[in-house]
Amino acid sequence: MSETASVPGSVLFLADYPLRAHNTFGFDVRAKLACRIEREDQLLAAVRDPRAAGLPRLVLGGGSNVVLTRDFAGLVLLIALRGRRVVGEDADAWLVEAAAGENWHEFVAWTLAHGLPGLENLALIPGTVGAAPIQNIGAYGLEMAERFASLRAVDLASGETVEMDASACRFGYRDSFFKREGRDRFVITSVRFRLPKAWTPRAGYADVARELAARQHGSGNVYGSAAAAADAAATTPGAQAIFDAVVRVRRAKLPDPLTLGNAGSFFKNPVVDAAQFDALLEREPALVSYPQPDGRVKLAAGWLIDRCGWKGRTLGAAAVHDRQALVLVNRGGATGADVLALATAIQRDVAGRFGIDLEPEPIFI
Ligand code: FAD
Ligand code: EPU
After folding, report:
1. Catalytic residue at 163?
2. Which protein residue has the closest C-alpha to ligand 1 atom 37?
3. Predicted TM-score (pTM) of this structure
């Protein structure tokens, strides 16, 4: 890696930059140029610099939802914008804002420390605030879209700063405008959230309910009895208790990228129509499913992969996590190609057995 001269506007370009520490799979790839963005004005200065002219661009937050398949022959913008604050309130909600480079989990913890519940179900999701709207992060009964107010972004094509509300972002399940039409064009610089004053707990997700029950009954066992879970649901857990429960559940089943490279769920949970669901259920009575408001049914991709016998299996330096079959891991020294070969083998088996095409969840570069 070598540093090249900084340009007016104090943008520092780093040439032949190693990205291993910037992607949670830990793939050992490099970028032709990289630039750390600490102030908004550095974004346009960087992309308009003659040395970056014509180069493809890649925005990176924590790199926890990307699969870097090879060296990147372009400019990587490392988002390091910081700051978080309460910006106002109305009759129903507090309005809080965080800059795109803030760590998501620390931001969630900060809201709770300020007595502002509402994001606790999304505790411990790796990555940055600015990436949260990209796939509308979700976990344990809550999607970010439900707490979203608006965001600011720089349109790299026009140079304009835009403000977008939820309808402009077109959030869906692990989806948004930014994964489709807006891809590679908008850089999110800050996000605002509405945290409800009339907060109520969201503790219905089975793992979370069990964990709360186990703590309430002092067993320390994540998988407490069904009766204990029902008791716990009958009392009202606070936001901090839900936060703690989510953190414990996640630590128990998801690998820590610092010790085992991964990007969380590798595939989306597939959604099928009622007829296909009925046919599958007849063949597979234990099928795990979640009815959707539109009559379709979401299936647990982890269960489908597990059922095909892939849980814990390895293929070269890549493997299927032994506690969560939806998570593919780098056992050490794997490349993007190794993980892709494993993903393709899994897709083939799931399609062969269930007639379902699994769609990858992370972004491929
Ligand atoms: P990156 O990986 O850096 O980027 C992801 C995408 O967003 C890329 O396309 C990038 O170009 C783009 N991007 C990033 N920042 C910006 C910006 N400021 N402006 C414009 N584009 C941007 N996700 C869930 O939804 N739920 C989970 O429960 C969950 N659990 C996970 C568990 C583990 C162990 C891991 C490793 C990942 C998990 N994820 C989960 C996925 C991941 O944490 C989220 O998608 C997260 O929002 C990614 O943030 P990041 O900053 O790392 O994004
Ligand atoms: N299951 C199995 N075997 C497995 C894995 C899962 O049988 O190996 C079953 C579980 O027993 C459970 C069901 O599948 O009945 C669902 O499993 P889990 O609760 O672990 O959730 P998931 O559907 O696998 C989704 C998200 C996660 C999120 C959790 C909790 C997607 C693609 N993934 O996983 O998000 O944390 O729910 O809400 O929607 C991510 O996006 O990266 C991510 C980790």
Report:
1. no
2. 264
3. 0.95
